[in-house]
Amino acid sequence: MARKPGSSPQAMKNRAAKTAAAIAPASALAQSAPAKKRVSPAQFFREVRAEARKITWTTRKETWITTVMVGIMVVLAALFFMVVDWLLGTGMNLLLSLANGG
């Protein structure tokens, strides 16, 4: 029986070694991370304020367009489910009237 290329024990060991080498720096970095030190409340709020400045808020126009689109989708979904409910109800009434003999 012929072996598949790369299925020899040596090839598998080489692949395992490459994988371990690629993973090792990440795990070594995670283990050597220093313990978190306590931050003063003033420093915490400065960092929060700096992060809040990075937020990009949607414009009034974008918010309005998104709201209208959501409203349209709600109306379309309601109409769809109303039609499906009516069809199933009519079908069940027809089936039950046939089962009752008339």
Please characterize this protein's 3D structure.
Helix content is 75%, strand content 0%. The model has no long low-confidence stretch (mean pLDDT 85). It has 102 residues and is mostly helical. It is built from 3 helices and no strands. The longest helix is centred in the last third of the chain and has 40 residues, at 60-99. Keywords: Cell membrane, Membrane, Protein transport, Translocation, Transmembrane, Transmembrane helix, Transport. This is Protein translocase subunit SecE. The chain crosses the membrane at residues 64-88. Essential subunit of the Sec protein translocation channel SecYEG. Clamps together the 2 halves of SecY. May contact the channel plug during translocation.
Characteristic key phrases:
102 residues; mainly alpha; flat
Describe what is shown at a glance.
It contains 3 helices and no strands. It has helices at 9-31, 41-53, 60-99. The radius of gyration is 32 Å and the shape is flat.
Shape: flat
Biggest sheet features: none
Number of strands: 0
In the predicted model, the low-confidence regions spanning at least 5 consecutive residues are none
Determine the fraction of residues in helical runs and give it as a percent range. Answer: over 70%
Percentage beta strand: under 5%
Organism: Phenylobacterium koreense
Keywords: Cell membrane, Membrane, Protein transport, Translocation, Transmembrane, Transmembrane helix, Transport
Subcellular location: Cell membrane; Membrane
Transmembrane segments: 64-88
